[in-house]
Structure formats: C-alpha cells, structure tokens
Design goal:
The chain contains four helices and 27 strands.
Length: 440
C-alpha cells in the first residue's frame, strides 16, 4: 500500500512539474553520421518570455566545418506547442551561407517528456509555398557539408533535449521582441496604442480551409476553426498596459501557405491582418502588440490587493476577499470576456453531455445568485442586472457528479446576440469570466 501511495505521489508531482516546466534554457541535439566528420550539433537557447507568450531564441548549427547562429522568435500557443517565426536572422555563418535552408525549420516545436522524464522539443514541420521551396531547392552546393546540413533541416527528425535552465540573454533578446528595432521581421507588427479597451475581430473567409486560432493574452478568442466557413465577429476586452493578440496558422489547408485574413478594430480604427501578405507568406503566426493606456476602474478586489490585470490570463490565483466561503479559495481559470451595452443580460446554463448529477453555485459581483443548482440537459435561465464597467461571474463546483470534472455550458443572451462558453470546474478550480457593461 505504501509503495502504491509513493508511486501515486511521484506521478502527481511529475505531472505538476511538467505543467510548470519553463521553456527558457538551453536545448541540444547531436546527430551522428556514418562519417564522424559529418556529425551535426544543433543548440537552441531560449530567453525569458514576454507575457509568458513570446520567447526570443538563438539557434546554433555546427559541424566540423560550418558554424551558424540565427535569431528567431517562438510564440506559445499552449503548454505543448511553440510556433516558430518564419524569418531567422543570421548573426554568423561561416564558411558558407545556409540562410535559405532555414525555411525548412518552420512549423512548431512540441514540448513533451521522454520515458525518463527529460523534457524534449520535437520539430513539427509546416509546408511552405512553391516559390519558397524553389528558392531553397536552388540552394545547391558542391560542398558536401552544405548538402548534409540542408538535408538535416529538410527531412531529418529534429528533437532537442533540455540541457540546463540557463536563460539566454544578450542585446539580441530585447531587439527580437521589439519590432521597431528588431534586425528583421519576426512576425510582430508595429505596436499600437489605443484608448478604448473594447474591440472586435472579424474573420474574412478565404478559398482554402486553413485552420486558424486567435489568442488574446493566452485566452482563446477562437481555437482551431476552419477559415473557409463564415463566422460572426468576436468581441474582446483589452487589459491595461501591453496586450498580445496572436494569430496562429495551425494548418495550411489544402494548399501550402495559409491565406486567412482578419479585420481587427479598436478605437473604431480597422486594421487588416493577413497571412496572405508577402511578409507573412509561409508564416505560422502573426502577433499584434496593443497598448491600452487609459486607466480602468476595477470593481473587483482580490487578495494581496491585485486586480484582474495583475494576474496571468491562464489562471487567476485566489479569490474575492469579500466572501469567506472556502470554495472561493480555490484557483480559478479565466474563461473570457464579453462586452454589452445593455444593463440586463440573461444567463442560460445546462449540461450538453450526460446528466450525471453535477451541481454548481453561481456568483455575480460577489453576490450568490444560486447555490447548489443541479445542472440538467434542460437549460436554467437567470436574469442578471449589471453594473457599469466590469462585472464578474464566478462558477463553483459543489460536486463532481458521477463523471468528473463538473461540466456545463453557459450561454449569454444579450438581446438577439448569443455567445456560449464551456464551463469546467472541480474541487481545485473555479471558472471566472468578465462582462463589461459600457454605458452609451
């Protein structure tokens, strides 16, 4: 029994450690060749992230004749996937240039662990357009080392293993993250400053079914959608200070290179962002940096004197100080924002899967509006009066039903507009969302 308990604890700790793994540090791969002189060493040094999403990085490629080092950018889509910038800036290449062949180092790096628990990054290559492929194919040399390196980048499985946690840091790390001073375009648009915290994202349909995702500060606006299908525009709310809106090309559809486009509107100023533009052709991501500078008044106070904008968007730690209920001391997952111009909205809650006995409690602006409500397949409706500005809704699991975790669907009805969210809570995690009532 003691051995089983120890094994359980080791597995539990291992899972927690995996979730807390820091991408920053040095990663390495050594590729043995039949001819030892052709063996290749690849090193990937990763710096500290900006807002836990943008990671500056340095790729080094070495064999007994060649040495090349290249700056690039990694963008975190989720805890496992880190998308690679289309462009890599060469700091040093000797005795020949390998720069064009770096186009094969395109796609995303997947963070997993091997059987011994050692973190590793596996390259998942994304195809690119015929013109780009032609440019790389033309890069042929009589130098055997060049051709070996090209073949490695093009088709050999690339798996980095973590060597240490030494964070890469030099003058290049800062420049990579700042489009105004970066040595090349790493996929980050020029920073925008706005004075309105609400915005909309409209999806422009294209002829190919590219799969795309969009995140605002680690929160999904949309996830893995087909860009060929029509979609209503999405509303979002900016945090005070720097915001990162990240557009991901998860799959290039039936044709090499993504062609999806978006209309981003903030301060009534529309901006078109397109993977089909020349600078973003073959890119796997585009990042829009948006600074919201106007002071916002938060209606919700958290422990340690923090407001919503002080917390990471993946998890809001702790709970509201004005309620001593122990269920509010759980960690909370931030599930999204919505803007309304109505003082009253309707919430509809139901279980769209198996009615397994889940029950939840619901709080709006620190006030319980229902306790221990059984969630059934038939929706329950609640009318909610909103306060001007921020309104916070907290979902708490009272039990886990017969099938954990406690799951349900929330639909917010605002006149003719409807928007749905998936709720997933347990004894360790609540769900929190914010509704911003803007008075006309």
């Amino acid at each position: 029994m003691a051995k089983k308990m120890l094994l359980f604890l080791l597995l539990f700790v291992g899972e927690r450690n995996f979730a807390q793994d820091n991408l920053s540090g040095k990663w390495s791969m050594y590729l043995f060749q039949e001819n030892p002189a052709d063996s290749i060493n690849l090193n990937l040094s990763i710096g500290a992230p900006e807002k836990n999403m943008l990671y500056p990085a340095l790729l080094e490629i070495k064999d007994n004749e060649f040495l090349g080092s290249y700056e690039l950018l990694l963008v975190k889509k989720n805890v496992r996937q880190y998308f690679i910038s289309k462009n890599k800036f060469p700091l040093k290449e000797t005795p020949f240039q390998l720069e064009k062949c770096l186009a094969y180092f395109n796609g995303f790096l997947e963070l997993v662990k091997d059987l011994r628990g050692v973190p590793q990054l596996t390259l998942n290559r994304m195809p690119f357009s015929k013109n780009s492929d032609k440019n790389v194919t033309e890069a042929i040399s009589s130098n055997s080392h060049f051709n070996v390196l090209k073949n490695t980048l093009q088709s050999v499985p690339i798996v980095f293993r973590k060597i240490n946690n030494d964070i890469w840091s030099d003058t290049g790390t800062y420049k990579i993250l700042q489009p105004e001073v970066s040595p090349t375009y790493f996929g980050i648009l020029d920073t925008m400053s706005v004075h309105n915290r609400s915005g909309t994202l409209a999806f422009i349909t294209n002829k190919d079914n590219d799969i795309i995702s969009v995140k605002l500060n680690s929160i999904n606006i949309v996830d893995m959608i087909d860009s060929k299908k029509r979609r209503p525009e999405e509303e979002f709310v900016l945090d005070t200070g720097m915001n990162l809106i990240c557009f991901f090309a998860d799959d290039f559809g039936n044709r090499p290179s993504c062609s999806a486009s978006f209309n981003l509107t903030i301060d009534r100023n529309p901006k078109t962002i397109s993977f089909d533009s020349p600078e973003n052709k073959d890119a796997t991501f585009i990042v829009a940096k948006v600074i919201y500078s106007k002071e916002e008044s938060s209606l919700t106070t958290f422990k340690e004197g923090k407001n919503l904008n002080d917390f990471g968007n993946e998890q809001i730690q702790n709970s509201v100080t004005q309620n001593s209920d122990s269920s509010l001391n759980r960690q909370s997952k931030w599930i999204g924002n919505i803007i309304t111009y109505s003082p009253e909205i309707t919430l509809a809650i139901w279980d769209d899967a198996v009615d397994d006995g889940d029950s939840i409690s619901l709080m709006v602006n620190n006030q319980w509006i229902t306790r221990s409500m059984r969630v059934r397949n038939k929706p329950f409706f609640f009318k909610v009066q909103l306060e001007p500005g921020n309104n916070e809704i907290t979902f708490v699991a009272d039990n886990l039903g017969s099938i954990a975790p406690n799951t349900s669907v929330l639909e917010i009805i605002d006149g003719k507009k409807r928007k749905s969210f998936n709720i997933e809570t347990d004894y360790n995690k609540n769900n929190i969302m914010r509704i911003v009532y803007e008075v006309k």
